[in-house]
Amino acid sequence: MRTTKLRMVAVGAALAFVLTTAACSDDSDSGTPDTDAPSTDAPSTDGGDNGGGGDAEAGKTLFTASCSSCHGPEGLGVEGLGKDLTTSEFVKGLSNEELIAFIEVGRSAEDPANTTGVAMPPKGGNPALTTEDLANAVAFIRSIEK
Ligand code: HEC
């Protein structure tokens, strides 16, 4: 009897130790990305709020209507028409305001910065789009960025 009890205590102690160790290493493992994640998310949300106040939901509707023919419904690009916006370093490198300004003018096929020989039309070829529309489109693009 005594031996069994002792064994159980020993097993319990070992278990407790393993659990504590596991919990500790879990904490330190998830602690680092957890601390990183909100700090990366926070500025982008703030940026969205301060920089144009884009609404990603409205932007998605607009993107589907005005941009998806060339950039695809998920912004992954359509071969020979529009580029993948989700992995674009160009998109990542611009602020929301700069991106809105870019979409307003587009990039002609003759532009030295053009990479495909295909034109990105001003406002995606839809002159009716307002700056607010474009801010929404940018908010949507930010939401699909990888
Ligand atoms: C008629 C096709 C077409 C439509 C519609 C279109 N685009 Fe484009 N877009 C392009 C092409 C082609 C490029 C790449 C130009 C180049 O080769 O540099 C491009 C490039 C871009 C880029 C820069 C990507 C990069 O990595 O250089 C952004 C941002 C962009 N488009 C956003 C939009 C948005 C937002 C809309 C909708 C309002 C839109 N586009 C509609 C064809 C289109």
Structure write-up:
The chain is mainly alpha-helical and 146 residues long. The chain has a single domain, classed as Orthogonal Bundle (Cytochrome Bc1 Complex, Chain D, domain 2), CATH 1.10.760. Helices cover 64% and strands 0% of the residues. It is built from six helices and no strands. The longest helix has 49 residues, at 2-50. The model is unreliable at 17-51 (pLDDT under 50). It binds heme C. Heme C binds at residues 66-67, 69-71, 81-83, 85, 88, 90-91, 99, 102-103, 107, 114-116, 118, 120-121, 123-125, 137.
Distance between the termini: 61 Å
Mean pLDDT: 80
For the largest beta-sheet, the strand count, sense and barrel status come to: none
- The total count of strands amounts to 0
What's the CATH first level?
A: Mainly Alpha
Order of helix and strand elements from N to C terminus = HHHHHH
Number of helices: 6
> What is the rounded Rg?
25 Å
Percent helix among the residues? 55-70%
Overall tally of structural domains: 1
Any guess at the CATH architecture?
Orthogonal Bundle
pLDDT under 50 segments (min length 5)? 17-51
Q: Ligands in the structure?
A: heme C
Give the overall shape: globular
Structural class by secondary-structure content: mainly alpha
How much of the sequence is in beta strands? under 5%
CATH topology term: Cytochrome Bc1 Complex, Chain D, domain 2
Using brief descriptors, characterize the structure shown:
mainly alpha; single chain; 6 helices; Cytochrome Bc1 Complex, Chain D, domain 2; globular; 146 residues; binds heme C
